[in-house]
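Q: May I have one protein plus its fold?
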Amino acid sequence: MKLKFQISLQIIAIGFISIFFVYPAFSYAQTTTPSTTISGTNSSPRVNQSNKLSMLHTLCDTQINNRLNSLNNIESKINNFKKLSNAQKAQYSTEITSDINALTALKSKCDSDTDITTLRSDYRSIFTAYRIYAVFDRQINRLALSDKISDVINAFNSTNIIAKLQSRIVQAGNPSNLTALLADLQAKLQAAQSQVALAQSQVISLTPSDYNSNPNSVNVAFDSSRVNFQTAQADLKAAMSDLLQIRQGLKTSTTLTTISPTP
């Protein structure tokens, strides 16, 4: 029993640590559409038309290849997400395939463009038509974090750690401080799960067209989800503190001191 109890704690601890080391902060690549003006393209006689095209061709290839790499990485993650239904996974996979095909075709078109005005328009469409970094990549990062947090919460249930703690506390004579810590631990887990669900609901339906029509609203949604996740992480941190205090209290149940639940 003691060995199983220790293993349960290790499973939870490993999952908990992974949240803060794999996803320590929220960041995303440039989301605004950059200027298509290349230094010297409008006024400098030193940069001829051929050089302008060559420079912009290189920019197009770089930006498209970056997005293709990101989409392929995202595709490899989708099927592992537990918080997505099969229908949602299929939808995301379809969108990824569509974007990959469209970006590949756009790259071919950009490479063959010989008119600077046309090439500039195609270059801008890399950003406005897909919004890989402004929307899609951020969505996937949020979903990945949602899974990580949910995995830790589910570990408490799958390992029966709550029931085991309750049994140990009963055996120790139901000391009020440990009972309060256990109640607080359960409350923190429920609160974290609620925050995760709210965070996911804020961003899961966002699209590139949403960003094009109202980028501020989309950024506000992502910022709000970030706050939700930070709150969930804080709740989990408090739950882990409760867990460790209970564990310590059970070790020294004959000489317990007052321990208050983490606020």
Remarks:
- Residues 2-24+47-255 form one domain.
- The chain has one domain: 2-24+47-255.
- Residues 219 and 225 are 10 Å apart (CA to CA).
- The radius of gyration is 25 Å.
